[in-house]
Hints:
The complex is a heterodimer of chains A (103) and B (230). With 103 residues, chain A is an all-alpha fold. Chain A contains 4 helices and no strands. Chain A starts with a helix and ends with a helix. By secondary structure, chain B is α/β, with parallel strands linked by helices. A 6-stranded mixed beta sheet of chain B has the order 6-7-8-3-9-10, sandwiched between helices. Classes of the chains: A mainly alpha (103), B alpha/beta (230). At the A-B interface, helix 1 and helix 3 of A face strand 6 of B.
Amino acid sequence: MQRYFQVSLFLYARLWPLNAVFSLAGLFFIVASKNLAAAYILLPFVKAGGYAGSLALHYVRASRTHLFYRNMGFSMRSLFAGSLGIDLCIFLVLAILAILCRR
Amino acid sequence: MQTLTADSITKSFGSRQVLNGVYLSCQTGRVTGLLGRNGSGKSTLLKIVYGIEPASFQHVRINGRHYNRPYRSGLLHLLSQNYEIPAQLHTGSFIGISCFKYREVLSALPFVKDRLNMGIHTLSGGERRFLFVLAAIYSDAPFVLLDEPFANLSPLLAEEAMQHIKAMKAHKAFVLTDHRYAQLISCSDDLILLHNNSNYTIRAPEELVRYGYLPQGAFIPESESFPSPL
């Protein structure tokens, strides 16, 4: 489990840049939106779009490195799921902080 | 002793059949050399055994247990011809994330020690390839599939890679393919030739000529896979 987390985190670091842009955009909606309910509705779509975009970019630019990850005994699907989990955890913490600051 | 058995492997690319009922077996403590002409299906066979290439039929067992995607067992390591790693990685971080069991042994090797703080992208193609070969040999997986490990390596590095394979074979099973047949033959305990879509176990040097892999009069080194004449 520790190894899975370590490799997922390693992969997440490679997916991070585009993902972060969308995460920040989501947080901006939470902080600046006049209607908080609308921001909550928009948030999952922004996050999903950001993650799907970073995955697509990874497939285009780094699909040749997949064997490197598979050699550690994990399928790409499980590693992407792990990195999504890490991403959501970080995002949830930031979103809660953003909501608290707004209030 | 751990064993890997791949049975009845059949693969076609469109109307062209590449492998037909191929059998491959290896066990820890032995090096299996896989020979064959260009396009005979050596790399395809390794990818099928590893689980990343779909086949018309395949049956892969590791220590008696059947796997659909054998690489998920964590018991296999494949070094493909166009192996790449994530960009901007340092040698030390690469070894840190890819090797656990033999990390200290690998880090202490002079070649690795001298380049531990260097970015892998700053290494030459040959140096990078040698580093990947070493990482595969000293990986945690007991079954190591090496697709053309000696390609791009200078004779000295290729010889060093061979010595590392021999040193680690007590703990691991290696399956090697390469067109440097002399080196492959000299470090193999078992030799298999892929020919006419099937596998042939090679027990005498003349068989390589008879099956049309080597020309008449080609140099063939001594090998464990050739039993001594009585």
